[in-house]
């Protein structure tokens, strides 16, 4: 269809050329419209009023089953070949099409509402020198728009000017990347000079040439031509749609990309219709069934011709042929007649039932109280109803980090000061005490400026500071001075800290509570309250943090004239620069650092140095010369920093917890036991991602080795991957073994599979974005895949949204495994859409990921319940449903096949017409639905306790081609019993009173009764979990059958509708005979005994994990998991402290233009974010708690 539309577009001359460069002019709509750039309206809906019916029906009839049933209906309308009424197919087909159409219409109406809501938002647009309110949908490329604080960014804009000094603006990008700390953007000075001058802005005619629309969130290239001068544009000068303006009074921007061209929409990825692996398998099986059906009908046709040739002439005396119908034509018509009679091998009710079961299982997810998050009032949500059983087959999980595994909140947990460890509690016997929510907190009421949200439990540290311990006071003085945090004090004593990263905010808040309160700063000074006394330090220099230095220093002069350098940074960096006299203290502190690292905390070492006045004069002069040098500025400054940051005195270390979401380590542990591999794909830097890996128990000290792939060339990456692979599996083949095959519908799809290679030990692998870019190239992708799939844990850091999707696609391409991607930001959308299952984390972060996801909930820990309980149950129910459904329908249909040998292959049905109509829609519909909706092998507690129960789904053990063949063999055997036992029992049989009952009507009644009893017994054997509903449906269906049978075969119905109900008295005549009931019992016994015997022997010889756990479950409820005593993990691997992902803002802090005299909006994160407020610390219990269900 897409090709047809493209063809029509090209014929009409409307086909859009591939854009290579964007060229636009400010305030010139005529010029910009000549390029036919997309407007700012977005459209995510599929239909409109006129196109809904034809498009929806076209989509539905592209499904093989629907097209097949339409064809069948047409055949049934031809009287010469139809022996079954047309309404047996028409009614269910219309019902299926209607239900699906209503569902699709409802989904599309919701999409229309969302589109309309966004497109009708208002924004100020500069038109003819005046600001006018315009709808977003009417904004065009080249327009100048005005944004105000807390407004959403309308389109992708080039920042022109703002209300802030240095033309800065502060953006919240939660909708894009899930991060709540604000990002700083800065306009060009030449455009910033226009300010909010309407005349200057309306006269602005700058021309922009930039890259075409793309999905790279972190890169932008372009040039602005203004007054004959060219100015470079980069990502720091662009505001992206989906962001929110914070702490900035106003700003003006030039629209670069609108609507579908914006990076937000480009990252939405193409929406693909996701189908489960069972759906794909069913398509193949349906084709096989069609082949099977055609074979049966061909056999019947040939047999019909032979019978007509040899025996038919004997019947022609009293059954004359119709005029013009000879044997070949009669045989041809019989083929189509048998197509109609035997069509129930693929009944349309199968698809109706599948959709109903999926819908019901989706409601279970929506209604699950154990997946409801009360703090954010967010329930779990199944946003699609077609993928439930796929949740029970997941092999690979791809997860984002920030906002998904972590809360992006840092808390000050412990510290080491002058060799003494603080932050832990001990009882009188010296035993370590577990810290819980109920543990008494330190009372900071003595400090009026303390943050009431700060939580600490160790009173000894407060006492040490109060006693005037010089080392403790110097420790917190350093934390109060050495940072780039900006304070905001709206009311006296109500302080709010704005930090460029949450780490710094946590440390400055800790100093504040322990009596060293950072109050204010100017470019030349820092004012703090030291134990209630105001002290102002002269700020002489800021030696800023970057990723190479991994430390930050400030040089200050105290009111007494004493000059000091305060430094904080990574332990390995600081230790190299300490005075030799600190060696013993360094050993003790290293022990504490190892303990902190063992607890998964992020550590930082603090040191100071007193400076001489004479030395400082010369150093400051050289610093000024270096900072104003035109060449080699960075190198000269680095030399000066190295020179002064020597021979420092060690003060101690801090330990900050990068707060994980609740239950993350336990969830990852449970999923690992279920043999699910979890990969983390994050935009964070390597150090941070690695640290989270250890905190989550994904990377562990017990691992044989954790490989780091960080080469900058393709050859280097290849070598590192090969070395890692050879270390893990030395005997592995040099080249990957790719198994090529064909699959999919009609076997047209070529597949390539790389089998897993066995590894004895556990390994981890960390790879950065630059190396990953090389590894994802065509010639290296198999090397990458082989190596990473050998590892237990894989962490990809500094990856782009596109790379996230590429990693998922690589695994999907070469592994016969089901993938799941989970994230919370727009940068995860491509990954979520690429995976078989996409899960969005909803909450305070952006909702873009949720809108693109298949399932959503508020916390990562709910993933455990989604997969191990709902996913496993859904898969089990669907597989049992399909096996039973195919069994009952093949058994029913094959009875017709055996009957053909006794009716001259005339396409006569063995069962009565009303039984044929009601068999799938009434008599057997409810019991099989109850099986698909309520069955469970073990309850949710056992499912969580034994994650190994999940593995059969990954291996497709419950429903596969092999299981399907077994199902057909079972049906063949049962149909033979159900035809020949009643036939033999009724042959030449008479009633007790001597009357004949060996007629067609009595045989039909007996055969259909035996069939219904047998399939009812079979569903009882298949049901593990009995509810009142199951009982009602099974026994109720049998009761309805007998009630309907006696009614339809009654005298009254015959007299009213003689032609419709011809089998008068058959029920009375047959079912009052003992030999009929004996025949029903014998048929049921012969059909059931082999099944019972096979299952009994199988459990005795080769019991599955499910059988073992069910046996345990029968003995009683599971006991609580034993509490494991806490053993402290000591680690020599130190988790690095991240100041930020980019260079610090030391230069801005010391800039005279940066600060204003009047109160100004805060600098870094917004004031109402959890990061800024430094929410209470929630300590993880030392003894692991078991999460029930």
From TrEMBL:
<keyword id="KW-0067">ATP-binding</keyword>
<feature type="transmembrane region" description="Helical">
    <location>
        <begin position="963"/>
        <end position="985"/>
    </location>
</feature>
<dbReference type="InterPro" id="IPR001757">
    <property type="entry name" value="P_typ_ATPase"/>
</dbReference>
<keyword id="KW-0479">Metal-binding</keyword>
<feature type="transmembrane region" description="Helical">
    <location>
        <begin position="1005"/>
        <end position="1026"/>
    </location>
</feature>
<dbReference type="GO" id="GO:0005524">
    <property type="term" value="F:ATP binding"/>
</dbReference>
<dbReference type="GO" id="GO:0000287">
    <property type="term" value="F:magnesium ion binding"/>
</dbReference>
<feature type="domain" description="P-type ATPase C-terminal">
    <location>
        <begin position="850"/>
        <end position="1103"/>
    </location>
</feature>
<feature type="domain" description="P-type ATPase N-terminal">
    <location>
        <begin position="25"/>
        <end position="89"/>
    </location>
</feature>
<dbReference type="GO" id="GO:0007030">
    <property type="term" value="P:Golgi organization"/>
</dbReference>
<dbReference type="InterPro" id="IPR018303">
    <property type="entry name" value="ATPase_P-typ_P_site"/>
</dbReference>
<dbReference type="GO" id="GO:0005802">
    <property type="term" value="C:trans-Golgi network"/>
</dbReference>
<feature type="binding site">
    <location>
        <position position="401"/>
    </location>
    <ligand>
        <name>ATP</name>
    </ligand>
</feature>
<keyword id="KW-0445">Lipid transport</keyword>
<dbReference type="InterPro" id="IPR023214">
    <property type="entry name" value="HAD_sf"/>
</dbReference>
<keyword id="KW-0460">Magnesium</keyword>
<feature type="binding site">
    <location>
        <position position="824"/>
    </location>
    <ligand>
        <name>Mg(2+)</name>
    </ligand>
</feature>
<dbReference type="InterPro" id="IPR036412">
    <property type="entry name" value="HAD-like_sf"/>
</dbReference>
<feature type="binding site">
    <location>
        <position position="400"/>
    </location>
    <ligand>
        <name>ATP</name>
    </ligand>
</feature>
<feature type="transmembrane region" description="Helical">
    <location>
        <begin position="1038"/>
        <end position="1064"/>
    </location>
</feature>
<feature type="binding site">
    <location>
        <position position="827"/>
    </location>
    <ligand>
        <name>ATP</name>
    </ligand>
</feature>
<feature type="binding site">
    <location>
        <position position="402"/>
    </location>
    <ligand>
        <name>ATP</name>
    </ligand>
</feature>
<dbReference type="InterPro" id="IPR032631">
    <property type="entry name" value="P-type_ATPase_N"/>
</dbReference>
<comment type="similarity">
    <text>Belongs to the cation transport ATPase (P-type) (TC 3.A.3) family. Type IV subfamily.</text>
</comment>
<feature type="binding site">
    <location>
        <position position="402"/>
    </location>
    <ligand>
        <name>Mg(2+)</name>
    </ligand>
</feature>
<feature type="binding site">
    <location>
        <position position="602"/>
    </location>
    <ligand>
        <name>ATP</name>
    </ligand>
</feature>
<feature type="transmembrane region" description="Helical">
    <location>
        <begin position="914"/>
        <end position="934"/>
    </location>
</feature>
<keyword id="KW-1133">Transmembrane helix</keyword>
<feature type="binding site">
    <location>
        <position position="545"/>
    </location>
    <ligand>
        <name>ATP</name>
    </ligand>
</feature>
<dbReference type="InterPro" id="IPR044492">
    <property type="entry name" value="P_typ_ATPase_HD_dom"/>
</dbReference>
<feature type="binding site">
    <location>
        <position position="504"/>
    </location>
    <ligand>
        <name>ATP</name>
    </ligand>
</feature>
<keyword id="KW-0813">Transport</keyword>
<protein>
    <recommendedName>
        <fullName>Phospholipid-transporting ATPase</fullName>
        <ecNumber>7.6.2.1</ecNumber>
    </recommendedName>
</protein>
<feature type="binding site">
    <location>
        <position position="684"/>
    </location>
    <ligand>
        <name>ATP</name>
    </ligand>
</feature>
<dbReference type="Pfam" id="PF13246">
    <property type="entry name" value="Cation_ATPase"/>
</dbReference>
<dbReference type="InterPro" id="IPR008250">
    <property type="entry name" value="ATPase_P-typ_transduc_dom_A_sf"/>
</dbReference>
<feature type="transmembrane region" description="Helical">
    <location>
        <begin position="1076"/>
        <end position="1098"/>
    </location>
</feature>
<feature type="binding site">
    <location>
        <position position="683"/>
    </location>
    <ligand>
        <name>ATP</name>
    </ligand>
</feature>
<feature type="transmembrane region" description="Helical">
    <location>
        <begin position="327"/>
        <end position="352"/>
    </location>
</feature>
<dbReference type="InterPro" id="IPR032630">
    <property type="entry name" value="P_typ_ATPase_c"/>
</dbReference>
<dbReference type="InterPro" id="IPR023298">
    <property type="entry name" value="ATPase_P-typ_TM_dom_sf"/>
</dbReference>
<keyword id="KW-1278">Translocase</keyword>
